[in-house]
Structure prediction request, 113 residues.
Amino acid sequence: MNTAQPLRILYCHCTYARIVPADVKSAVLNRLAAANIEFEAVPDLCEMSARRDPRLQALATTDSIRIAACFPRAVQGLFEAAGCHLSSTARVSNMRMDPADKVAAELLEEIPA
Prediction:
């Protein structure tokens, strides 16, 4: 029996911090939409963490999650601040430092067309 969880992709729009270049955010979001796959887009992980949004707990326990946000260490800290531990298998792509093509490739890697 296969009990593996399906891959989940989380895209953070970093609405309030304005630390991620707008062109990178837009390009990554457009690539996800064009890929015709399911993904969850949230306005701001920082705000979710500050509010201790219960959705973070559900996301944290997902074994196969890829997150487009900022620095991986910062994303880990946001989950910790919200009282949950991000899975060790989570993959965080850094839209703050990496170009959109690299982030999109990391998010969409090995996803069947």
